[in-house]
Amino acid sequence: MAAPGLLAWVVTSKYLNHLPLYRLEQMAAREQVTLPSSTLAEWVAVQA
């Protein structure tokens, strides 16, 4: 279950900053956070 701040970061990064989900996954990994792109896709309701 994601916190509201994390969801806000994902949606803002994807739609306002035009970042693909794989880049968000890489950014999270640099901070030692595992966020598979499939999970990110579910959160933003994109078919992966």
Distance between the termini: 19 Å
Largest sheet: none
Count structural domains: 1
Shape by Cα distribution:
globular
What would your notes on this structure say?
With 48 residues, the protein is an all-alpha fold. The chain has one domain (4-44). It is 65% helix and 0% strand. It is built from 3 helices and no strands. The protein has helices at 4-16, 21-30, 37-44. The N and C termini lie far apart (19 Å). The mean pLDDT is 91.
Q: Care to give the gist of this entry?
A:
The chain is mainly alpha-helical.
Key structural traits:
single chain, 48 residues, mainly alpha, 3 helices, 65% helix, globular
Describe the secondary-structure layout.
Blueprint: H1 4-16, H2 21-30, H3 37-44
